Protein 1
Amino acid sequence: MAKLFEQSSINGMVLQNRLVRSATWEGMCRADGRPTDKLISCYRELARGGVGLIITGYTFVRPDGKQAPGKMGIHSDDFEPEMRALTKAVHDEGGKICIQLVHCGGQTDSAIAGRQPLAPSSVKVEQFPETPAELTIDEIRDIVKAFKEGARRAKAWGFDAVQLHGAHGYLINEFLSPLTNRRTDEYGGSIENRCRFLFEVYREIREAVGTDYPVLIKLNAADNLAGGLDINDGVYAAKKLSEAGIDAIEVSAGTPASGEQSPARTKIDRPEKEAYNMEAARRIREAVGCPVMVVGGFRSYEVVEKALSDYGMDYISMARPFIREPGLALRWKQGDTSPAKCISCNGCFMPGLKEGGIYCVVEAKERGRRRSQERK
């Protein structure tokens, strides 16, 4: 039975507790994807707050895989000084940091990607802003190499692990999903073929970083969409990843088109609404031999403890609660186990677009009211 504040390890990466800061876009990088001092300070505060593992915001391996402004990139050796400063800031606070690697595929647009978006198939689905171009075999191979180079840089620059983004409608998930993958070649059709791109990426990354370096994945157990990836295929992919040597699987579900079953749901205001990916994570936990992380609406200490003790989860991932409270892990460890203050409004993402960085707008308003009252 896993306990929340016990030490554990993932392929030699020692973690002080079982809380994971799940990846979220921060909007704190320069236009080219270079980290800023603001982002470094964000990660330093998370490490100081006691979270066991920090997973960075989704980091593009090629410029045509970028989706949003202020997003981090790892496509250039020129970023080494800033990246080393970032990992050092986390390590100086006793933290561990894992970089999440992504190509956004069809979930970007021409203005941001600098070209027509690329996807497994040239189909227009709800989560795609425009119709993408179908990837050629040579283009697929080039993107696989970009993931490999990103992982090579990450290890050299001091990141403790890498995580593939295989969820939420991005390129790896697009290959896995029959909704977005209509190919008739060796990359399409059966689930075995739809897994091919994922496993090519994984094998190349493993070759770059070696067997003694943690390689993780955030995996959609299901797309929660008609015609999309279903739980049976999600479990199949997880099982094969475990057999291939993946070091941990973070279970998520949904895409931006999944409506009320999207990855970041709102109005998580009572324990019954929390842990909304738990059943899918249990299915995967039963099928794999590697550690399993689960993300999805965790807010209450008791729900977190139950996921570990009763459902066999190895790690609990949260994103939005750590935007509101970077020190949540330390607060819980010190005995204040009241729920996370996050109200799941998703208001934190708008400042990233308008003000160059996410923050909790609810907390900012409350702080403003307190200051106003103090001045009276």
Protein 2
Amino acid sequence: MRKMVIFIAAVAGLLSATGASAQNDRRDAAGPDIRREGRIYHARACRDAIGPGIARCFARFVSDASGKEVMREKASVTPNALPSGLGPTDLRSAYNIPATSSTRRTIAIVDAYGYPNAEADLANYRATYGLPPCTTANGCFRKVNQNGASSNYPAFNLGWAQETALDLDMASAMCPDCRILLVQANNSSLANLATAVNTAAALGASAISNSYGGSETGSTSYESAYNHAGIAITVSTGDSGFGVAFPATSNHVVAVGGTSLTRAGNARGWNESAWAGAGSGCSAVYPKPSWQTDTGCPRRSIADVSAVADPATGVAVYGPTSRNRAGWQVYGGTSASAPIIAAIYASQGAAGSSYPAQDLYSRTAYLFDIITGSNGTCGTYLCNAVTGYDGPTGLGTPNGLTAF
């Protein structure tokens, strides 16, 4: 009887995974995808559709009801006021992360298209929060194209530039003294993004953040680019709720889900629950890694770990807007959580296992277990936060550096 129950659970997981993948492709059509959570509207930064061989970034910004950015400029009447949204001190407090790392390692940010003002906008963010300068001149910041050249950058794309601003700011927030390498793929094809990941690894990154995803269909052609032993490669699980995306389903990456994070009067000082938009589920393509032991999915389950992603409890970002000028906005999506986790890996500095996701499964005591919230109606832990492992939040969120 026990074997039959396990078999039925495995089949159910496979069927839900296949259905989730198809559903995810359908609802990830082109457009702003405006949503409302409480009194907060938020919309996609990248508004192209995803599909076989094509990825879309998972950044979302707080918007009005039409999908236009809501600017969050500092109040002029209070010169020292900080922008709306969670800042570096908030994030490090929530996850018990020190302001200085054990070594100045390099975080690589892989994104598509060009962002000419990346360094200048990053400087504004860091100066606002009192973080040390990170510039080309002082050797902290480096920008290259997908082949590693500091020239011939791709054409500008607003949505992907907004994604890049989010990634750079979150990396800075969590590891202010880490070096940052920005690798810009020619476009959002998985082939070009894979080339950029290989370039980041070749240029010495200890952690590589990827805040994008596409269909699993045909993805095996690109999976090897995410297989770099000893490098923490973090990948967003998605922004459309229950359903999977590649490369988060690769066995060689740390799949990063998302939470809602709010201040609280408890000992931690924060409450956290699964975010409704966090991607999760069961791969229809990739086998289950040896360190995953959940029984409701016969193949790779996502996520592994998580961090704040809900735009309604989002992070402050300085970057480009549709108003043809830079400004402060509040962002979310698992595009926020992936660079947060990458920066924590870089801040820790330890080599760990050949594939860092494995370590998380033996260090759950050093993670906050998220047990409330849901991202769908699958009826299982694959879309409902529960005690221990679950799909939307994985094993939980960081409680210091030890799990990484």
Protein 3
Amino acid sequence: MPGPRWPAEAIWEAVSAVLPDFSVEIVPEIDSTSSELMRRARAGRTEPVLLLAEHQTAGRGRLGRHWQTAPGAALTFSFGLPLAPEEWSGLSLVVGVAAAEALHPEVGLKWPNDLWWQDRKLAGILVETAGTAQGRERFVVVGLGLNIATPQPTDQALRAPPAGLRELEPGIDAAAALGRIAAPLLLAVQAFGAQGFAPWRERFAARDVLRDRAVRLSDGRQGVARGVDAQGALLVDTGQGPQALHSAEISVRPAGLA
């Protein structure tokens, strides 16, 4: 049975004018696309690249969580490029906005790095950086795992069942999803490097699934989410006025799901 027809050339054509050294690599299997790009960066290989694996054996998400799916059931890829923004805060939100807008009008965003649909996780984003030899420039690696089919939950600790893109668009496959979102993601990260998060704030607000909802923080505090500030920090009213949460180590969920 032939494999998917990945739109590598179309992605390259859409991005190469902005990133002349950009390349697209597709491999049948790897431990983790993000891990591989971080290994390359630490070895001094910092050319812009998109790396896609048809199957990951050791995929991972934020806070060290494992992320595994059956081959063909998800889209798993990472891309890396050198970047030197004035402020790094808000990058994962920009990636989320670009992905959600490219996928479907009903896809929402849960701060700081998830795509949601009907209070269920559709995709996760992982952002990592490695130093380069070029001053304050860093090599940023953005990994995205997007459920195509709806997974069966295997972790009883999950507070909400996962969602799959085929629930919104029956028949879509990983190759079609990649063709839809890859170029917008890369171009969004380039734009973030020049302009930061502020120009994306209203677009994030339009898809913010936590806004004006009761939330429970992983450190035990509770409050009401009030959107994000110009740096991408989550504003939570805990009864003593809005507090800005910057830490990527804080998990936030609607209180009804916690």
Protein 4
Amino acid sequence: MNTLEALIHNNRQWAKSIEENHPGFFNKLVQQQNPDYLWIGCSDSRVPANEIVGLLPGELFVHRNVANVVVNTDLNCLSVLQYAVEVLQVEHIIVCGHYGCGGVKSALSNQKNGLIDNWLRNIKDVYNQYEVQFKAIKDEQQRIDLLCELNVMEQVANVCHTTIVQDAWDRGQNLDVHGWIYSIQNGLIKDLDVSVNNKDGLPAIYRTAQSHSDN
């Protein structure tokens, strides 16, 4: 059995197991998706979103990219965000990074990696913002792990700065944005305690004015 055939075989076994444990699961799933959560995570293959939080297909809407970055010009990410908030009406947006992130590690170096260097510039900006903290840390792994955490916090802020999320809050929609980080070493998630559920705590420059139609 070649590698691709093995994947097809695994799929058959997985589908059989799901149906045995949850009779009628796929018939129900095909009708609609109704997740409460949007997960914005890293593309790293070691961080499978549904599995590490114990959720089944249909329970977690997912967007992944290298180093879980949210950029205000990334139409892919913004489209997922808008669909999740406005159509699916998710109640929680979780930005989840992970320790030892290869993208973050690359951003800390000055090596050339090609096109991705333009993407990783966003993480270099986070480093530059907190450079004083990094100067006091000599251990390279500690520096990487700190930047992984700070990057998550920055992306939480970026999510909150979008018109999509702020419009939802203006409508009175229940929506919380959270920042988590995952450890590949032990499989555990750490809440970074940066949750936001309204515009009050945002810097004034990032707050959008509420439209007259909403008043």
